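pinging the channel bc i need a second pair of eyes. not urgent but kinda urgent?? the chain im working w is below, pasted from the shared doc
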Amino acid sequence: MRSAVLVLGLAMLVSLARAQAPAVNAGGVVNNGNYSSQGVAPGSIVAIFGSNLASKVAIGDTIPLSSALASVTSVTFNGVQAGLYFVGPTQMDAQLPFESLEGNATSATVNIVVTTNTGSSAAQTVNVLPAVPGIFTVSQTGVGQAIATDNSTNLIAAPAGSIAGLTTAPISIGSGHALIVWCTGLGAVTPVIADGANSFNADGTYTLRNTVLQPTVTIGGVEAQFVYSILSPQYVGEYQIGVVPAADTPTGNAVPLQVTINGITTSDKVTLAVAP
């Protein structure tokens, strides 16, 4: 009887260990800006969905990003470790390694494996493209008010008083100010940069890194004047596009803002406020 009880107990432990092993959902790696399922781009911030991904919520607080966080010992894409922004039981945020797409390749399929102190997930495939844009939004859902700022005032281009705790104001066409669109998924940059790093140097200066591919920005369907497209110096995997709204840009409190790059256009459900 003791033997039978012991065998049953061991079987339960094995079953529990299997139940706690991490699992990545099929198609569970998406652009962190808008959760698009069109694919993800090298160097971008991606959201990873699954179960038992981490024992608790933890936020990365180092640059370069750490490749281990809380109970998570590694997240790899084709064996290359990714820097971690955030981990939790059902979602993780990480930077997709730039090595995920080599040379002039137009697409690639890589395997993601999440390893924790309870085991490793079964590999899931991830579709990688040169660029897949995602605009960050105030709601953090990929729709609604964009995180797009007036380059001169640093205010989010939203209706005045519309975001609790922040001073906001529409971008004024007549001002001639540039608009900065905060996003991810714009792909490779030049000069190149190490995974998990930002563009600041040891002496406090930073290296300006332009995207290899140039995006187009439209506001209310009208193309804005392109100024630059760069990797944001202070952050990892976050990009800035600078544009000047055209004189005939529509005005209003919820004017659609869209980014096109690599033949992919963001949703028209992302908006900003525009004044004359």
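so The chain has a mean pLDDT of 93. and Residues 15 and 92 are 25 Å apart (CA to CA). — does that match what u expected or am i reading it wrong
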